[in-house]
UniProtKB/TrEMBL annotation:
One protein family per Pfam: DUF4287
Organism the protein comes from: Frankia casuarinae (strain DSM 45818 / CECT 9043 / HFP020203 / CcI3)
Protein name (database record): DUF4287 domain-containing protein
Top-level taxonomic group: Bacteria
InterPro entries (alphabetical): DUF4287
Length: 75
């Protein structure tokens, strides 16, 4: 279940991730790829929160970004 945030809000969250977490977006996308292979949006968000202590808004933005990039590759 994806959150209904505007594209602008999503972009702002993505841009803030390096400063807020100390790691760039690609680092977090790699963690998701190397993670336990969860399929559902909420499961992946909860895994990032539990394993890496990320705030919910950033975890959700990262999972959404991963989904957007995956769809872009397929198209």
């Amino acid at each position: 279940m994806s959150l209904n945030r505007s594209a602008q809000t999503h972009q702002i969250l993505i841009e803030r991730i390096p400063k807020a977490t100390g790691h760039d977006v690609n680092h977090w996308l790699d963690r998701l790829d190397d993670g336990p292979g969860l399929l559902r949006f909420a499961e992946r968000v909860n895994w990032l929160r539990a394993e890496h202590d990320l705030p919910h808004c950033y975890a959700a933005a990262l999972v959404h970004e991963a989904d957007l990039r995956r769809r872009a590759i397929r198209a």
